[in-house]
Amino acid sequence: MGLALIFFNCKKPKQLSITSPDGLIEVVLDQTDKGLGYNLYDGGKDIILNSGISILPDLQVEVLDTEINEVRKTWNPVWGQFSEIEDHYKELEVSLNYEGVPVTLLVRTYNDGVAFRFKADEIPAGAKPSFFIEYGLPDTSNLYSPAGEGQPFGPVALADLGKTQPNGKKQKIKMPLVVAHQESKFLSLLESDLISAPGFDLINFNYDDQRNKLVSKNGFESDERSLTTPWRVILLEDRMGDLLTNTVPLNVAAPNQIENTSWIKPGKTLWDWRVHGLQAKDGFTYGIDNESYFRFIDFASKNGIEYFLIDDAWYTHVEPGEITMSDKLDLDKVAAYAKEKGVSLILYYDRRQGNYGDDALFPYYKSLGVKGIKYGFMGANVPFTRDAIRMSAESNLLIDFHDGPVPFTGVTRTYPNAITREFCHAQQDSRRAFTPKAFIRMALINAIQGPLDMNNGVFDITSVNAGEREKGPKKLNSLRTTVTAEAARTLIVFSGLVCIPDAPEAYAEKQDLFEFIKEMPVGKWDETKILHAKMDGYISTARRHGEEWFIGSVHNEGGTLDITLDFLNDDQEYTITFYEDTEETDSTTNPEAYQVRTATVMKDAVVQAKMVSGGGHCMWIRPESKK
């Protein structure tokens, strides 16, 4: 690990400024009669202007002193999109006086973003801290926002945000916001390291009609009088897809708090929930029973799938200190069988069915010999979710949050047991299917905040569309996709736990296509690139593990993406396996038609990834000497 520190000092300036290490991004602070403000420039172009920032909005502020440091170091995530991350920034430390209350403002500038954080040792009783920041964007800026379990909305012009919608309400805005800026820049507005900011709630965006500005706030409620805010982050990129690999949110997050991380293993998991009621070709019907689960475990063991996730049917009743097991299966026998086969179990927990008490819940799960918990219906409760992450780590349990959880951006650095979360419309959730357009939107918007559990990877699409599953979409023929798109989606959406939702037979019958998922080393990536990205159009993602590359692409309307393999090594021949739509593939009428072929390529070869509407394309590339 390398580390460099450079110190500067200025005394009581009227204007404060700091640039990024490459000198292109600049933040200028101004102290006025109305308080503290900032302006953000990139390459001399106006990005955000005349915007207020405060932690005690009701008090006047005075700048006392400043100091600038430059830091350059590297660190290694436990798992992630990169095996090594450079953390190179300049930091402006501003000493402030809020009518006798000393506060420190930290402003960090990276080459691809900026971040703000306040700290205070003691806030007087009666004071009402609130991390307030404005975003003075041009009115022509177009915004995109997540929409819970629905398709993300946008583009919405900033000037239209304050207008009342047809339902009589104003548009609800959530992080991470994506902004298409008039200066041909793409921004994302979000926060990071909320887990290290006790007392603060989730970031709240709204539009200030009087100021004609987008604003955000974090309220503060705590008996403690010291405070540290989350980092408020603004990412800046020339290409929309690069927002997904921007490391600023991870760099500002607190370092790993788990001393021994050897038990934290990202991977793939089979899942029973979407298979209930399906009759296999041999006449077996999947349900909540030992034999069904043995089938999942056998397939997982044979194909190197690390986990099997059992949903909420394994128990029937919860009371404080007691969980009543379902008589439909013998969980001890299933757990013993999984252990024998080298497969780890993850068990769902639904808080709506009762309260076991989290102090006892996680040790209880550990006593069952399982490796993780999928926590459902906890709500967007910040203190509760923070405690759940910490307590699950203390019991050496992975945790996957269901249904609209708190997006603790950066938490995978601080608590890498927080393996994924359903901060999206998971496929077929609420018994409905999302469209190819919705997938691309979530992959380009929701995924900026961190890993997603989206449950992609349906191979028996015909069965789902025919309504042959108890938990399939209520509307028949509503899942429009192709099997190659489903395979590609498992790579495109980054997660520490890739949950594939189909029956073992569905994958076994297409074993040559399933090879792409089987060989994919989830969460153990050395490098990630977004090769192509267009909102509502397409996305193409390349991930490297060692000398092997996995590339997945999907296309909403159908078309061809030219993928230049300029990232391969010089003078090395590679074997490339293609998993493709065919001329006969149709995402509505013939979704399971595909082809698998191999070829030899070298650096700078151009692959034409041809996809049907709603279709996909996958590649597995490895040095030719490797099998």
Which keywords apply here?
11 helices, globular, disordered N terminus, TIM Barrel, 627 residues, Beta-galactosidase, Chain A, domain 5, 35 strands, 2 domains, mainly beta, single chain, 7-stranded antiparallel beta sheet, 11-stranded antiparallel beta sheet
Report on this model:
The strands form 6 sheets. Strands 1, 6, 7, 8, 9, 11, 12, 13, 14, 17 and 18 form an 11-stranded antiparallel sheet that branches. The radius of gyration is 25 Å and the shape is globular. By secondary structure, the chain is mainly beta. The protein is built from 11 helices and 35 strands. A hairpin with a 2-residue loop joins strand 11 (142-147) and strand 12 (150-157). The protein has 2 domains: 3-137 and 191-251, Beta-galactosidase, Chain A, domain 5; 267-523, TIM Barrel (Alpha-Beta Barrel), CATH 3.20.20.
